[in-house]
Structure formats: C-alpha cells, structure tokens
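Notes, Module 5: Reading structure tokens.

Key idea: the token line is not a picture. It is a compressed description, and you learn to read it the same way you learned to read a sequence, by spotting repeated patterns. We will look at two proteins. The first is printed below with its tokens.
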Amino acid sequence: MGFYQPSEPRKRRLPQWIGVAVVSALVGCGGSLAMYPILANHFGSASQGGAVTSSVNPTDVSTGATTNVNVSVNDAITQVVKQAVPSVVAVVNYQSTQDFFDQQSQLQETGVGTGVLFAKDNNYGYFVTNNHVVDGADKLELVLNSGKHINASIVGTDPYTDLAVLKTPIQNVENLPVATFGNSDNIQVGEPVVAIGTPMGLDFQDSVTSGIISAKQRVMPVEMPDSQSDGTSDSSQDILDYETVVQTDAAINPGNSGGPLLNMEGQVIAINSSKIVDPTVQGMGFGIPSNTVHTIVDEIMQTGHATHASLGIEAYSLSALPDYLRPDVPVTDGVYVQSVQSANAKAAGLQPQDVIVAINGQTITSAAELRTALFKLQIGQKATLEVYRGQKKLSLTVTVSPMNTSALSSSQGN
C-alpha cells in the first residue's frame, strides 16, 4: 500500500490536508462485449434490511429469584457474512527480487490485499480489487476462503479510480457464488454496513468489521501507487486524480483494500480502498461506490482499460500557487492552466495562465472539483468553460477529450 500525501501542485500540500495523511488500506502493493449480460446479472439494486432483535426474561425482583433467560437473535450481520465470505479472496502480490550474493531473481511476497468474485463465464472467474493491490506484480495468487491458493492474471487496471480486474480459470471457482452488487445511489447515511478483508496478511484473512455509512460523497485523492512493502511511501508522492467515495466508520485496515463493503442485504455497495491515518482521527475509511465500480469494470472487461474525460491540460488549484506564480485575475479560487496539451483545448482558445472558474455553469474552485465535474462527462461532449484571462472574463466551448490512461504522469492532468 502507499500512504497518500496529498500535494498540489506537485510536492506542494493542499492547505486542507496539512497534518493529515490519507492511507490506502493495503500493505505493500498492496474482456469482451459478451460480458455485459454477466455483469448485469450481478449488479442489482440496493435496499436496506436486517435487524437484531432479542427477547429476555428478567430477574424476578419481587422474590429475588433468577428466572431462565432466553435470547432469540436474528443477526443480520451473521447472515451477510455467511453469504458474502465465499466470494471474497485474499490477493497476494509477488514481485521479483534479486539475491545480493548469487544475483539470481526470485519471487517474493510484497503485499496482500482483498478481492471480490463478481462474474463468471465458461472460461474464467473474474475478480475486482484495487489497482494498488496488484501494481508491479510479477505473479498474483488468490487465496480462497477454504485456504486454497490459485493463480490469477490481470485483465486490466485503472489507476485513476484505483480499480483492477483479475481472472482465473473457471475450474478454480466454478463452485463459488458470485457476489451481488447493489445500487450505491440508494445508500443512506447511518445505514449499517459490513466490511470483509485481509488486514495485516493471510493470518487474518476474512476478518469482519461493521459500522455505518458516515457520508455518501467525499472527494478524496487517488495517488500514484508505490511498491514499498512496509506500507510507507515518500512524502512527495503525487496525486494522480480525485474521486468521489463513500465514507464509513467500519474498521478499514491495511489489507482491506479491494474488499467489499456490504449492506444488510449482503449486496456490495462499495469496494474498500483507503483510510485516514492520524493520531487524532478514528474510524474514517473510504470505499469506491458500486456504481463507479460497475462503470469502470464494464470498460475494463471490454477493452482492458477505462476511459476518462479530460480537457487535455495541465492545471493546478489557484489557491495552492505561491504568490509569485499567481496571475493577475480578480478571483482567489479557480484552476490555473499551466499548459494546454490537447488539440481540442487549443482549438477552443484555452491558453496557459488562464484561470477556469466554472464548467457548464458549475462553479469550480479547485483542480479536485474540476476533475470531479469532468468525470461526469462523456468523451466528445462539449463543455462550456468560464475563464479569466487577466481581468477579462471569457466563455470558451471545449470538446472533451479522452484522458491518456496508458501511462501515469506526475503532473496534475485535467
């Protein structure tokens, strides 16, 4: 896993993140159109349900005699766990290392995360997990609830949402149930949830924690994954993107990355991905909403990668720039255009040192807000930008381009 060290621009911390490290939950690293029907069968609608009830015959206080106590528990959590655990696996990342003495390469376990079986066809079973769980892997192993180890390969990854799809031959998982995914738009704040994962390695596989949904929409940074096996990373690690996630107080620990966050119907409503680590903070974990997972996984199954809308610029939050770099504009918030890279943005008239303050009528105060707004757009869609160029306010219409997701960049792309 890598520790998030938010910075914007590169190696410069955002003011709201000073003193707080956001940490991915994994230690260390952690298609075809025919797949549409398979996916559709397993991404259903979410609903709430389940309760804990009890019945107790108390002590007879009038006589001092103690009566028998009968407890009847309809434990929704127990039922959810029984239903979900067979679909959950540990994901072990092995990477090549070179022996110092004989200079021979050998595979070494560098991290353990979690994955969820979401689809099967005649040839393979498919698992979703986090990109940082599988990043840099030379070999991947899945460990089933039974303890059996099986090999897996990568179908595709999307570092910008921190998601990955793995596959294994169908004979390895033909008897396992496929997890049901719910509709994350139906999530309610305060709704009880259960997390299942592999915290701190295989000794604690299928650990269960519970809590509630603390918030439905939090914008959190996604960082470039690192390959350090002790769960630490350089404080200069770059923010790759931002995404809207679900917040929960269910315990999310190193190794929970890629595991399910379930509602009381046993439906996966998020894929756990990160938490905030700070001596003064407790119970702030985050998961990628199931509807986002569905969209990204769908694309990966078809093409091996996901596409994201982009303006084709390098940009930073205006408020994060030092005074000597700030342009002479009549606003203190917005997005400063460092460079214009796409032909569409150039054709629209966007220029370096412009400051974007709105897109399609939505006020934009930071690069994070711009990325969130762009995530909702389709490739080829036209977006109207309100831009300050010096003291002059302009309206520019840009055709949205596909983001280049084939290679990671240390710059802040939008």
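Here is the second protein, with the sequence above and the tokens below, as before.
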Amino acid sequence: METQEKRKRIYSAMQPSGLITLGNYLGALNNWVKLQDDYDCLFCVANMHAITVRQDPAKLRKQSRDLLMQFLAVGLDPQKNIIYYQSHVPQHAELSWILNCYTYMGELNRMTQFKDKAAKHADNINAGLYTYPVLMAADILLYQADLVPVGEDQRQHLEITRDIAERFNNLYGETFVVPDAYIGKVGARIMALQEPDRKMSKSDENKNNTITILDEPAQIMNKIKRAMTDSENEVRFAPEKPGISNLLSIYSAVTGKTIAEAEKEFAGVGYGTFKTAVGEAVVARLEPIRTKVSDLEKNKDYLDAIIKEGAQKAERIASRTLEKAQKKVGFPPKIR
C-alpha cells in the first residue's frame, strides 16, 4: 500500500502595520491563497515584531484583528491553514532567547534592515529592533518550516535563520529543519500610484500612492484617476513610461490578461478611458473582499473562535520544538 507523501510546511507572516494594499494582495497574499491546497501553511499576524516601533496600543490591537480578518477575506481557509497571532504563542519569545545565545553580533551588525529602520527611527533604536532577525528565526524554526516565501528585503533574514539553525544542529544534533526560500510564481510588482519608481507601501503617508483592499469604490476610482502618467497619451508598457506601465501591471493582475493583451485592448484609447477601465477592474476584484470583511466584523464569536483555535494549533507544534531545544541546551524538563 502506497503511503501518501508528507506535505511540506510553509511559514509566512505579516506585520499589522496598516491595511493590506493592492500591492500586498497581488504580490503576496494572492499567492498565499494558491499555496494552501498543496502545502501545510501557517500564516501569522506578526504583532510582536510590530512593537520594535512605538505603537498606539488600542490601534495595534485593532490593526491585528483587522489584518486577520483580511487574511480570511482574501481566501485563506482556517480549516486548511493555521492562522494566528504571534503574541498568543509564548514559545516565540522563549525560543528567541535561546537563539539569541547562538547568534553572533557580527551577523546582526550586517543586517541592512536594522540600519534602514534605525535611520528612520533615530529616537528609538532599541534592542528589539537589533535582534529582530533572531525573533524571525524563532518564528520559522519553531514550526519546522521547510519553505518560507521571501521578497528581496527578507532574503538576508532567511539566510541568518539558516545559519542559526545549522549552528545549533551542528552543536546538538538535528533539532531544526533548515528552511529554504520558497520561489513560486512571482506576484505582480505594484508601484506607488503617484511615485511609480517605488513600491506601493502600507506605511506610505501619501494615501494617494496606495490602494487598500478595503477602500470604497469611489476612493479607488479617484486614486486611479489621479495616478501619475505622462504626456504621450499612448497606453504601452515601457521603462520610460513608469506610470502607465504600473497601471497596465495592475490591470493585468486583477483581470488575468497579459500585458500584451491589455496593450492591444487599449490601443488608440486615451488615458482617461484607460484609467476608468483600470479603476473599474480593481473595484470588481476587491468588492468581494470588502463584503467578506464587513460580514466578519458582524460575527465576533466566529472570529474569536478562529483566533483561539489558531493559537492552540500553533502552540501544539511550537511547544514540541521548544521542549526539544530546551532539552538540547540543558534546561531541566517541566514537572507535570
């Protein structure tokens, strides 16, 4: 009798730093939804990472819940995946301390994201910001993840995770799965509407640069109509036309049409007509998500049950790994 091959485990997380943008959705979450049928997936609301920057407590609680609702609304199934708050699983912090003792200062000094964030938050360069990659390593290693979807800005963090895991395993024997980067289909790279030379970002202070997945239809149409274009009035994808190229990328991603098909569709059409079509396509794609979030907001008991169950499932896996690591370093077992 053939045994079913064990599915690989994928771990991914997102900070609750604001509403999910169209860029987050098309570049990352849309791909997460496709992974859930082929892998065992954990999707984490990384609210412990969020406090490396000063937060308004009430706002952080709300944004954490909002992000989890958006995970569900885009199609992540709590029956197929483990969806949870990082702060509800104390093993993250416990393993992070152990791994801190197996991470070298030189490794942390090389982390470019620390340098970038320290420059942005010069009045709050805290130890958590510095050891952030170790907590990220604990996040991944706790669940014995085989694969981690990473963008270019997170690749360095995955490398240090691998280094820490290999160092620990070499000292104590096989304890952690050494994770690989998940290289799947590249999601659409969506740029800022007003500044198409940089990525659309949740933290952008210029709200006309971003579309969130919960924007009202009128907001979406207005933002698309104000998006930067050029003086040519020709809809084509080209390096010298970053604004139009970005709108074509958006249209292609939300409709499933190729860039070439979109260029053909809008040949000889003015920018006004083109922008209206892009806006309507985005509205049509996001409307079901807005409706789903609205339904979830009215169903507190259902959402609370998902949050509770997600934490319990995550903790069952995390506790096994933590106890194994504690034993390896010489901590005495708990008396039960």
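Summary for the second protein:
- Strands lie at 9-14, 40-45, 82-85, 147-149, 180-182.
- Residues 76 and 233 are 40 Å apart (CA to CA).
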